[in-house]
Amino acid sequence: MTPPPALRFAGRVTSGAATLLGPVRMGAEAGVWTCLLGPSGVGKSTLLHCFAGLEGNLVLDGTAGAGDGRPLAGRVALMAQADGLLPWLTLLDNVSLGARLRRERPDRARAAALLERVGLAGLEGRKPQALSGGQRQRAALARTLYEDRPVVLLDEPFSALDVATRARMQDLAAAELAGRTVLHVTHDPAEAARLGQRILVLTGTGLEEVGAQEAPPIPRAPDAAATLATTGRLTRLLLEAA
Prior knowledge:
Layout: E1 7-15, E2 18-28, E3 33-37, H1 44-52, E4 59-66, E5 76-79, H2 91-95, H3 97-101, H4 108-117, H5 133-147, E6 151-155, H6 163-176, E7 181-185, H7 189-195, E8 198-203, E9 206-210, H8 225-241
Parallel strand pairs: 3-7, 3-8, 5-6, 6-7
Antiparallel strand pairs: 1-2, 1-4, 8-9
């Protein structure tokens, strides 16, 4: 895989007369897992959509793109809040959907292996409506990993999972996405403290960086003193911003 690019955003995003984000300037370093927290409605998901090129009816007054100046198209995988699984496809076909849309031959063995890694072995032939919300979210994670992109945008990727499964999926994602540029939106301070090599808090007044622990390897132990301290600091910041 070629070295991943950094991400750069500067400006604001509007919809009609309403400002949904900004003005703000931020960056996600190349090859670093960046966590972005903030109150609901502050524009975190909007920011991800700008990087993914999904502005839709939104107007970007500024720039959002790769730090190397090249287009991000074709280099980004987005895991949105909604799982986006197509109800008429099996789990196996949903995981490899991107390849089918690009008119490539799906790697069914790789898709099956990823489903096994997210704990869905034996369910490859099921349709999404036969699954729980947590199972669907894990299938969406497998689909994101299948894309194998240098830039990965995650929007609350573990929110539907129980505590134990969430920890396992965090471990898996950290291993699979090591060395890539990851921008991860989360409402969970403990999750950011485990995964964030860089942690940003977005509020209505701007962007604040919270220093992560000095040990760069992730995921960090959930009960480590530094992890707990970062969780507490982030919680205080979010309470103040609410």
